[in-house]
């Protein structure tokens, strides 16, 4: 199913995060010399985009989805995943995220995004009418206005250094 235009801003941010996951996976195994750059990038991405994205979902998308009984359990799962991912970002900030943790982080973030895209958003598009989606989209645009959608530091990943 095509993504409703009102959910596209979140989907675009999901694409950015999935691109990060792909880069992290291609850089495996992450060398100790590259670990600090990856941690720094994660902290910046969280501050500039993902933290804002999570808040928008928690304040707007999740309550909208929770109105539908068939999505209530999914929303609770996604909230738990947000908390777990936030903790991983916090570990990156205090420099406690290891190379092994980065791989787990990448897998967890990727699975989370795919669940939102394939299950949550698809169901919302079927359960909400056009007017409800439009109102939600307008609120999302306001909530996401301060997300930069760009990472300032891009660590030199293994695949880049071999080219």
Give the secondary structure arrangement, pairings included:
Blueprint: H1 8-26, H2 32-66, H3 72-93, H4 99-127, H5 130-143, H6 158-161
What does this structure look like?
This protein has 163 residues and is an all-alpha fold. It has one domain: Four Helix Bundle (Hemerythrin (Met), subunit A). The C terminus is likely disordered.
How would you summarize what this structure contains?
By secondary structure, this protein is mainly α.
Mean pLDDT across all residues, rounded? Answer: 90
Query: Which CATH architecture would you pick?
Result: Up-down Bundle
SSE sequence, one letter per element: HHHHHH
Work out the strand percent.
under 5%
Terminal-residue CA separation = 37 Å
List the uncertain runs: 150-163
Radius of gyration: 16 Å
Main beta sheet: none
The CATH class assignment is Mainly Alpha
Reported by name, the CATH topology is: Four Helix Bundle (Hemerythrin (Met), subunit A)
What is the number of E strands? 0
State the secondary-structure class.
Answer: mainly alpha
What general form does the structure show?
elongated
What's the number of structural domains?
Answer: 1
CATH superfamily: nmb1532 protein domain like
**Helix tally?**
6
Give the helix proportion (percent range). over 70%
């Amino acid at each position: 199913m095509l993504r409703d235009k009102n959910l596209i801003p979140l989907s675009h941010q999901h694409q950015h995060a999935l691109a990060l996951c792909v880069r992290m996976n291609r850089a495996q195994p992450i060398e100790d010399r590259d670990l600090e750059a990856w941690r720094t990038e994660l902290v910046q991405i969280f501050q500039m985009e993902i933290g804002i994205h999570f808040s928008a979902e928690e304040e707007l998308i999740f309550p909208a989805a929770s109105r539908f009984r068939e999505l209530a359990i999914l929303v609770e799962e996604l909230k738990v995943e947000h908390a777990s991912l936030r903790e991983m970002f916090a570990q990156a900030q205090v420099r406690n995220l290891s190379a092994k943790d980065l791989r787990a982080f990448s897998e967890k973030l990727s699975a989370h995004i795919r669940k939102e895209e394939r299950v949550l958003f698809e169901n919302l598009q079927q359960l909400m009418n056009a007017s409800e989606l439009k109102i939600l989209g307008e609120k999302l645009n306001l909530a996401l206005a301060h997300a930069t959608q760009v990472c300032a530091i891009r660590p030199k990943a293994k695949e880049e250094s071999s080219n």
